[in-house]
Amino acid sequence: MNKLALSDDILMRVEKSARYIGNEINMAKKDPASVDLRYAFCFPDVYEIGMSHLGIQILYEMFNRRNDVYCERVYSPWPDLHAIMKEQHIPLFSLETQSPVRDFDFLGMTLQYEMCYTNILQILDLSDIPFYSKDRDETHPIFIGGGPCTYNPEPIADFFDIIYIGEGETRFDELFDLYIGMKKSGSYDRITFLHEAAQIEGLYVPMFYEVSYNPDHTIADFHPIYDDIPKTIVRQIKMDLDDSPYPENPIIPYLQVTQDRVVLEIMRGCIRGCRFCQAGMIYRPTRGRSLETLKKYAIEMLKSTGQDEISLSSLSSSDYLYLNDLLLFLIDECNKRKVNISLPSLRIDSFSLDVMDKVSDVKKSSLTFAPEGGSQRMRDIINKGLTKEDILGGAKEAFLGGWNKVKLYFMLGLPFETEEDMEAIPDLAEDIAMLYYDTVPKESRNGRCRITISTSFFVPKPFTPFQWATMQPAAEYKRRAHIVKDRMRSELNQKSISYQYHEPDVTLLEGIFARGDRRISRVIERAYNKGCFFDAWTEFFHKDLWDEAFREEGIDPDFYTMRERDIKEILPWDFIDVGIKRSFLEKEWENAAKGIVTPNCREKCSGCGIAKKGGGVCFENKN
Amino acid sequence: MKTRIKFSKGGVLRYIGHLDLMRYFQKAMRRADIPIAYSEGFHPHQRMAFALPLGVGMTSEGEYMDVLLDDDILKDSIYKTKGSDASDTSNGFDFKKACEALNQTMADGIRILEFAPLPEKSSKAMASVVRASYYVYFKKADFTNYDKLCEAQKSRFSNVPSMIIEKKTKKSVREVDLAPHIYEFETIIIDDALRQHMEKFLPDHENNGFLLNNGDPLIKLSLSHGSEENIKPDLFLSYLLQKDIDEVSTSIGCHRIELFMYDEEGALSPLIKNVKKQ
After folding, report:
1. How far is CA A339 from CA A169, A218, A317, A346, in A?
2. What is the count of residue pairs from A and B with beta carbons less than 8 Å apart?
3. What domains can you pick out in chain A, each with its CATH number?
4. What is the pTM of this model?
5. A21:B12 CB<8 A
6. Cα separation of A59 and B245, whole Å?
7. Digit-coded pLDDT (tens) for A249-264
8. Which end of chain A is less crowded, N or C, counting CB atoms within 10 A of the terminal residue's CB?
9. Which residue in A7, A302, A338 is closest to B44 by CB distance?
C-alpha cells in the first residue's frame, strides 16, 4: 500500500503523521475487490488511544478470519488534521487501504466513554455521512455502534442505524451473512435489511422504536413500531471464552500508544458487586479463560509482536482462579525473554507483594488501594468489600517489605454521603501514615512515606443499584473536595499526604450522557456544530459552549442530574435486558440505603438473575 | 560481538520518527530472535545504537546501527553456524541467515542491506560518522529550476573562499562558514536510471507531484556530519538560493545515500567497510 490518503505536504505539516499511514506489522492485507463486505471499525478518539483498545483487536481478528469480509480501522483525526480536512474537503479514510469511509458497507464504532460522543459526529462529518439514521440512504454505510456506553443508547440512538447490545463475538456472523445474502440475491434495500437485522437477538434498530414523554419529561411509553421485532433487547454473551477468537498476531503500532504492550484478557465480569460500578453489573457472569489458553496466547503474542511488556486485563484480577499459576508462569517466561510484566491492581497480600517484588523495581513503585469510600459506613453503602483492617494489614506488610508510597482512590458525591464520610478519607490516609512510622524503625526508613489521595466525583450509571441516585451541583462537589482538603491539612502527618481531585464540570456532562434520553442527541449535534469535540481532553472541553447548546435546545440539564428517580419511573434504558433483573437492582438500592452488605458471587449467590444464562461463576462448583 | 547493520528506509515509513524507529527495531530484533545483548539492571534494554537520526519525511539507503550480540546467547541460538574454522570472522554467527530473518519481519519500506561483524576495537557508529551524502529533489515546481541552480553554483559556490550563513539551533544562533564542509555539490538531470532508483524509495512521488521525472534537476551533496559540524542539506540550499530556511525545508526532499567514516588507515569509507566478497 503505497498511496496514502493524505498528501506529503499535509503529512509533513501535522503532528505525529504516523497516526495516519497504517502499514503496521500484522495489519490485515486484502484486496477490497475480492470481499463481499467492507467494514470500517472506528474508535472515536486519537490513534494512540484507539489502538490501545482490546475489543477492536478481538473483532478485527474475528472479522478478518472471514474471507468474504475485510475489516479496516478508522480513528479520529487530531484537531490539527481535522481543520485541514474540513478546509480541503478531504474525506475521512481507513488506515489499511486508505480509502474513504463513505465507500464501506459498514461503519462500526465502539463507545467506551461518554465524553467521546461529539467525536461520533466528527467521524460522520468528515466521512460525509448524515448525522441522523433517518437521513441516510442506500449509498451510505450501515452505521453500527456498541460498547459499554450503548447499554443506555438513547442519547446517541438517533445517530445509529443499529446498536449492538452485548459481546461482539456472538452475532456479527449472522448479521454479515444476512447483509451479504441480501446483496447477492438482489433483495437488498436499506430499510428491509434493517428490519431483518432488528429481528436478530441483541440488535437494536432505534428508528423502529418510538418514545413518548409525560408532561414532566419522564418517559410515558417506549415501544417498537412493528410487531415482529422484540420489545426488549437482550444482551448477548460469549460464555466460553476459550472457544472464541483472540488476536494472537496483534497489530504493532509505530507510535507509542497508551497500551503499548501485549494484553492478555484473563477474565470477563466481576464477582464483587460494587453498587456504583457499571462494569461489575453489565459484564456478568464472571468468566475466566483457562490457564492453558492464556499460556499459549502469551507465548504466541510475545513471539509475533516482539513487545517487551505484557499486561493482564480484567476487572478485579485477584479473583481470577488461576492467577497465581499464571503469574508464576509469566515471571519465568518473561525473565527468560527480558520482558516486563505490567501488573494489574491486585489485592495486597503476601503473594501479591512477593510477585510485585519479583517483577518491579521496588523503590520506584507504589502500592495502590481503591477503598472508594473513606468510612466503613460508606464502603458498606457502596458494597466495597474492603475493610480498614484489610487496608492497614496490606499496608503494614508492604511497609515491612520496603514500600513507602501508597496511592488511595476515592469517590466523592456518592449517595447518602455525609461530612463524616468525607472527613474519613484523609483520616484513613493519616492512619496509614501513622502505621508507617510505627512499623518501620527510623534507621530503615527511606525518607517520609508518601500517601497520595485522589478523588473523582461519582457518576451514576445505568444498570447499577445507583441508577436512581441524584448528582450534586458543581459548587457542592467543590465544597466536598474542600472538606477533604481542609481535614487533610489538620492531620498530624499532613506532610506525608497529598491530595488531588478532578474538576466537576466534565463529571456533570458525563452524568447527563450516561442517563440521558433521546432528546440529548440534538444537544450533542448543536455542541459539535459550535466546535465541541475531543471533550475527553481537558484542553478541548468548552463548558460555555455546552451550556449554550443546552439553552438553545431548551433542555434543562438538571432534569438528568439533579433529581433522584422514582423506582416506578420508566428509565430510558429499561427496554434493554442485560441479564440481571431490575428487581435485584431495586433491592440493592434499598440495601445501600440501609448499609447492608451483599456477599460476592463466590461467597453466596444473591440471585441477580444472570444464572439463567447457564454459565460462568454461577456454575463454578456445580459440575 | 560487535556488529553493524545497514538498512534503507522509504515509502510511507518515511513518516516514522527516529524514536519510533528505534522502538520498531527493538521489537524486530525480538521477533527475529537475534541474540542481542542487554544492559544490566532492573529494566534491561537492548544494546543497539543508531549512527545518525534521519528526519521525518526523509528517505535513505545508507542508515546504520550498531548491535551488540551476546556471545553466550549466541551459542544456543538458531543462528549458530556449525563448523567454524580459523579464518571465520563471523564468530560462529550466521549473518546471512539473520539478515534474511530480519527482512522476513520488516515492514514494507525498510530493508536490511548488510549485517556484518565489526572488529572489537571499532568505535561506535555515532562517533565514527564524518560525512553524509544526499540526493536533494524538489517538491514544488515553482521553487527553483536547473538554470537557476547552475547560476547559483557559479556565483555563490565555485571559487568562493567562504560561505557564511546564520545557523539556528534550539539554543543559539551563530554564523558558520560552509565552505570547508561541502565536499561534493553537483546538479544532475534525472534520467531513467536515476528516476527508477528514486522510485524505489518514493513510489508515491507522482501522487505528490514531486519533481522526480526525467529532466527534473536533482542535487547530489556530500556534507560534514558528526561531532565536528552538522550541515544539513536545507541549510546549504538556503545559503545557495538565498531563501529562508523554513521555505527551503518545505520545498525540498532529501534522500540519504551513504554515511562515511575514516577507516584504520585514515581513508574515507562507508560505515561498513567494503570487504572483498568471496
Report:
1. 30, 54, 20, 20
2. 83
3. 8-234 (no CATH), 261-346+579-623 (3.30.750.210)
4. 0.95
5. yes
6. 47
7. 999 999 999 999 999 9
8. C
9. A338
